Please model this.
Amino acid sequence: MNNEKDPLFTLKEDLDKELFDKIEITSQKRLIMSKIHHKHTKKKINWHIFLNIGVTAAVICLLSILGSSYLSNEELTEEDPGEEIKNPEMTDQHSMFIPEDDLKDEINEEKKEIRKKQKPVVEDNINDPAPSSEEEEPEKEEPKPNETTIQVPPFDFSYILQNPAAFTAEASQGILHGTNTIIGESFESIAEKYGDLPFVSGAEGGYKHNLGSDYLLTFDEKGEGILHRVEVKRRINTNLTVEQMVNALGIPYFYHDAMSTNGVYMAYIYGNYQVTMRVEGKVELNQRDTNADLDVVFVDSDAKLTTLQLSRKWLEETLLNKNTEISAGEE
Amino acid sequence: MEDTHKNHLIESLIDEYETPITKLAYFYVRDWPTAQDICQEVFIKVYDVLDHFNHQSSYKTWIYRITINKCKDYRKSAYFRKNTVVDKLHKYFNKEIAATPEQVLLQSEEQTSMSALIFTLPIKYREIILLYYYEELTTQEISELLNINSSTVRTRLGRGRQKLKTMLQRRDKDE
Model:
């Protein structure tokens, strides 16, 4: 390529001598290698950082998605009312959730309405004499062909005075003598015995039945069509006094019913049941302090007992006392 | 390619081509530290693209092409242009300052040296002359390296050589 005739054949030697002889050429190999490794380590670190962050984010996303898929019972029940409001007409579907309490209330209301439509309401009046109209009596005496009424023994308060032990024994079993019923039995069985009874609403309301000419029988239903309370009321003026009952059944509890009738009652408790009688006569009440119940401090021994009621025990014995003075009132 | 193999290969390439690459870069940038920096960048680049090397040319040609491209990029940069202008102004004002006879003699010797004459050539002739005479590449290798026709290489080589001969003859007459 380069021969001796070419004046530039010594170019390489000349340039080396002029340019590079004075320069001390040192190797940059170590520096280059360290730069290469540093750069690639950085790349690897970045890759690992992004990988770790990505994996962590993916796990968090997955957990949040899975977590949101499972609602707690409280969260689920919070959403149910909305669904019910949207489709109230779908209550006949078996798969739909219907609150139990609402269903019971609906059934009870429907039953009451049906009974009201079937029978006229009987007015409850203490002073109202026994029905004597010629039009009504034949209807009652003539049994309806579909009704399976049974004969019940005639009721009289005198039975209690004559047979206190037997009355007490029956009462402790939930049976009110002379009514042929037992507390806790179904209303269907009562309907079989007494037919469809008219219903009266109010504090002293219930399903009414004339027990003979002197007494009015009231059945009270409480929950799931079960007999809760049976009451006998003397229609005409009664001669049964507090003293007679105390002599027959012993010292009772006296209490003032401030919640409903505002009357004074005497009560006997027999196991899970209680017998209460309304006292009408001279009584004295006392209030210990502003918010306390009224205590019955005095009852005239000649005060009359107008009603007798047997029910499940709901009185609390610890809140009652037998300190009431029973004596003849001053005329 | 495995990292270990890559490391061995790049180390051997550095051993073989580090000095020629730095010198080649110097011919373009005329500054030794800059040439060394370019040399570093060239080998880092070689390491990065080593997996993509297709072996259609030799490692020497491939690395030389990377070096020349780096040098040309540097010469196009604003930093190089600014420095060149500053250098020219510096030289111009230095001429105006009165110098001693020894300094004038040294300056005249520097200006008439072979390297000074080479650097006065336009870059398109200078790179062909240097690749041909200094790097001892064939015109075919130079055409592949610069991605131009070999006839163009030969033309530029002839013209560059003629220019250099003229300058050498003028220098000899002056001496």
